[in-house]
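re: that chain from earlier
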Amino acid sequence: MPREEAVRRIVERDGKTEQEAGNRLDSQMSNAARVARAQTVLCTLWEAEVTQRQVEAAVSRLQGELGIES
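^ sequence. v structure.
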């Protein structure tokens, strides 16, 4: 998620100032580092249908890795 979007969400959700939200983000692992460590990455910035397809594909992949029939 872009930094500006993350700041906006923190400000709206938690009632923090933009400076406080930025400080919180600065104390966390970067998005690039999270993605580098992740096995599955979902993005909710697009339409709900796109996110739904991402989730379905991830669940299907995981079920296959676990040997679970859907």
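Residues 40 and 61 are 10 Å apart (CA to CA).
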